[in-house]
């Protein structure tokens, strides 16, 4: 079944996968993890962010989140 994709705007793509429409299988080739405080990674037009207090805990006890070794 065809997909109908409405208007979109992509500000930037730094690698990775951008897919429009139907897809049977998507397998990321790489992953990354970013820790940032509240309001730090907002993108778009007319952003208004009000933050009183922000705290980020980057501690990750299980170390591996998304393994992509089988996606080569």
From TrEMBL:
User: What does the sequence similarity comment in the record state about its family?
Assistant: Belongs to the GerPA/GerPF family.
- For this entry, the protein name equals Spore germination protein
Q: Per the UniProt entry, what species is this protein from, by scientific name?
A: Halobacillus naozhouensis
